[in-house]
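Design a sequence for this backbone.
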């Protein structure tokens, strides 16, 4: 994918300069950002694999995946700004365009981007948790000290839903896919702009489409930034996940969950810390076995407190 992207990047930037097409040049510059982003994505996978069993990473290397996605989103935003800047400059100072050559290169770019989307789309959504998380063994902890945390959930369902919707995704692969998708979009917009300019004399369409493409790329970038930053900052899991954990623990023995934190540590992988108050205390391992297996909570810390007699 990186080799394909770099080759097409060189062709489009050279063609954009030679033939005077801003839309084509913007596509080539966008390709440059994607070549860098794909390199970062590849490095993130290599790093996660190499350090998967490194005990210095308390929860494994699953968040390297998310960090790669966050970096890719930042690059998307930066090059969207560059596309706007170049497009506005061409609106103010138009340049002659060699339409036939520019259209041919744009069509080639669209074909290449389509093939790239098929390659990445085939893998999009596959589970990379096995190589990213590692096989750390974590012990549950039983504390006999007082634990007086009152955890308030924000009533911010939209942001929670957005973060939870992305928590199970491979953010690194999603970032790479969005870069390729953005390339395909800018290639398509370049073709439309060049055809409109050639046959209808609408020369302003070329830089205008650069601005339209930049707006769409920026939107994808901000969405990915919001999702990945929520994971990197250990935002608490959505209310439905917390409710499922609470219900599983409180189903027996008059247990009460006094404090609960559940957060994402990798693609579809979670960690949990909870305090259980119960009239019949049991070892922490017992409460761990009560957790729903479909939540993929791979590390759990449990505090058990005896209920104070009334």
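Sequence:
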């Amino acid at each position: 994918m990186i080799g394909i992207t770099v080759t097409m990047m060189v062709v489009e930037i050279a063609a954009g300069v030679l033939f005077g097409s801003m839309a084509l040049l913007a596509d080539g510059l966008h390709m440059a950002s994607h070549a860098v982003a794909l390199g970062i994505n590849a490095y993130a996978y290599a790093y996660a694999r190499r350090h998967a069993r490194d005990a210095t990473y308390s929860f494994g290397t699953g968040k390297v995946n998310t960090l790669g996605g966050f970096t890719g989103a930042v690059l998307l935003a930066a090059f969207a700004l560059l596309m706007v800047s170049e497009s506005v400059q061409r609106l103010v100072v138009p340049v002659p365009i060699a339409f036939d050559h520019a259209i041919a290169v744009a069509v080639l770019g669209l074909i290449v981007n389509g093939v790239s989307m098929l390659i990445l789309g085939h893998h999009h959504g596959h589970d990379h948790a096995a190589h990213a998380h590692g096989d750390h063994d974590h012990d549950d902890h039983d504390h006999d000290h007082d634990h007086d945390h009152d955890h308030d959930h924000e009533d911010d369902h939209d942001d929670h839903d957005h973060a939870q919707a992305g928590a199970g995704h491979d953010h690194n692969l999603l970032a790479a896919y969005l870069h390729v998708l953005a390339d395909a979009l800018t290639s398509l917009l370049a073709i439309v702009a060049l055809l409109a300019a050639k046959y209808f004399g609408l020369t302003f369409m070329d830089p205008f489409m650069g601005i339209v493409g930049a707006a769409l790329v920026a939107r994808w970038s901000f969405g990915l930034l919001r999702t990945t930053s929520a994971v990197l900052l250990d935002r608490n899991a959505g209310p439905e996940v917390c409710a499922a954990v609470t219900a599983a623990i409180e189903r027996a023995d008059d247990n009460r969950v006094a404090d609960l934190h559940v957060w994402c540590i990798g693609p579809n992988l979670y960690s949990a810390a909870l305090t259980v108050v119960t009239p019949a205390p049991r070892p922490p391992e017992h409460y761990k076995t009560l957790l729903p297996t479909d939540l993929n909570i791979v590390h759990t810390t449990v505090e058990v407190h005896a209920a104070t007699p009334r």
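Residues 85 and 279 are 66 Å apart (CA to CA).
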